[in-house]
Design goal:
This protein is an alpha/beta fold. Helix content is 33%, strand content 20%. Strand 10 (214-217) and strand 11 form a beta hairpin. Helix 8 runs parallel beside helix 9 and helix 9 (283-297) crosses helix 12 (333-342).
């Protein structure tokens, strides 16, 4: 019987933005060779200084490259150093540092841009290794287009993309036409601690439900999945009237989706709440009202820490005069706007907001100052979290200490970072990774209750 032909080993050339997006990227190409051009090392060197998030990621990437190369000689590096991923693991693939190679002849891109230098180097490498597949890996769509136009194969970095279609992302609830119970053949109902719970087999419409997801139907039934295994699902019966009339710091939910979000925000057993939705769906105001309630009224938490990911924030906070809070204020205007909205019916709204800001332990923090910190008994609000990479979101969530709760807010339709898409965003990655976590929950808010104008603009512009 003839032996099956072995798959061709590939040579993956990593662009700088891939190593910034995921500093561990060079370990994720299995048996294939990983090549890092000298131009990429130079770019990492330029970006490694400072307190910005990108600088920390550059330093991490450089340390990973150094760890793999170890004490290898220049000759060994030229041939390729085996990539060892664990103490007892067999090495798979090799790491090479590629010197820039000017292409002879007219068929070369001008060398005044680093992107062009990398593409020229790849084209020269392709000519030398015609039997190997040489692929550029870059998060920059324009660089991929340039490379392909020049005859070099190029791909996006997909290692941390868990979904092929954003519509497959869990919403945090399952909606049923007419009655949910029309889909159920057998149920066992029990009373536990004053709550009604239904024990159902995990099959049919319940085959893909996750813990802390909701089940809602047109007849007014609202159930929350409180336990799930391979055999059965336990659903707690929640009363829609109670959910819709839950008042938090003067705020009452406008629809069932906001009511479910508020229920999760106030649940002490949920340590990570992830709210997505279009502009004006109520993400920030719900989070803020719940946080003030839990720090001022019930005193479950000691402080609220608000931060956000915004392009330019790393650079603009810089050495401007003023305290960190004063520098952060323009970026966190949404928080103050929502405080005003919560107190718009007061006799003196400005005095109410000033009073709340003086009484509520609300701290505005730059993302850069959160790295390396540990926050105990705190509520951490991360606004605009769709602009974070999976690596950055991991860095922030791991800051949550004992008794803390993290609330991530984001709109996957408004990504401002050039190298991220809805599929590669850290918010998408986290939502998919945490869907089975007992102490985590996600709700995708619907509609645009901000105003009739905002709702019409969202639908028609």
């Amino acid at each position: 019987m003839p032996r099956a032909p072995q798959a061709r080993k590939k040579m993956y050339v990593l662009d700088t933005n891939v190593l910034i997006h995921d500093p561990n990227a060079l370990l994720n190409f299995e048996e294939h060779d990983v090549i890092i051009p000298m131009t990429v090392l130079e770019e990492l060197d330029k970006l490694k200084s400072g307190k910005q998030t990108v600088a920390a990621d550059c330093r991490q990437a450089i340390r990973n490259i150094d760890k793999v190369l170890g004490d290898a000689t220049p000759k060994e590096i030229e041939k390729g150093v085996p990539i060892v991923r664990g103490e007892k693991a067999e090495p798979m693939g090799r790491l090479l540092i590629l010197m820039s190679t000017e292409r002879a002849g007219a068929h070369a891109l001008p060398e005044h841009l680093n992107d062009n230098k990398i593409i020229n180097t790849l084209a020269a490498l392709q000519e030398r290794h015609k039997s190997r597949d040489i692929i550029l890996v870059s998060k920059d769509i324009n660089m991929r287009l340039k490379a392909r136009g020049f005859g070099v194969e190029a791909q996006d970095y997909h290692n941390d993309q868990l979904l092929d279609d954003i519509d497959l992302l869990p919403k945090g609830y399952h909606e049923f036409e007419n009655s949910f119970w029309d889909n159920i053949e057998k149920v066992e109902t029990v009373q536990r601690e004053g709550a009604t719970e239904h024990i159902l087999r995990r099959e049919g419409v319940l085959a893909k439900v996750n813990i802390n997801e909701f089940l809602i139907d047109e007849r007014g039934f609202v159930g929350k999945v409180v336990d799930v295994d391979s055999e059965q699902v336990i659903i707690r019966d929640l009363h829609q009237h109670d959910l819709m009339n839950e008042e938090v710091w003067g705020l009452v939910p406008r629809d069932i989706y906001q009511a479910m979000a508020l229920h999760l925000l106030l649940d002490p057993d949920i340590h990570l709440v992830n709210l997505t939705g279009s502009a004006g769906s109520g993400k920030t105001i719900l989070a803020l009202a719940a946080c003030i309630e839990m720090t001022v009224a019930s005193k479950m938490y000691k402080r609220i820490i608000a931060t956000r990911s915004t392009q330019g924030l790393d650079e603009d906070i810089g050495f401007l005069p003023g305290t960190e809070a004063e520098k952060m204020e323009p970026w966190l205007g949404a928080i103050v706007d929502n405080l005003e909205a919560l107190h718009e019916d007061d006799e003196n709204m400005t005095a109410s907001v000033d009073y709340i800001l003086s009484k509520v332990p609300l701290h505005f923090k730059s993302m850069n100052y959160i790295r390396g910190r540990s926050f105990q008994h705190s509520l951490i609000i991360i606004d605009e979290s769709q602009n974070l990479t999976p690596h950055q979101i991991k860095t922030i969530i791991t800051r949550a200490g004992n008794g803390s709760k993290v609330i991530c807010l984001g709109n996957l339709a408004q990504i401002d970072t050039p190298y991220l898409s809805a599929l590669s965003s850290g918010l998408t990655y986290m939502t998919e990774r945490f869907k089975g976590f007992r102490h985590g929950a996600h709700i995708h808010l619907q509609g645009v209750p901000r105003s009739a104008l905002a709702e019409y603009a969202e639908a028609n512009l």
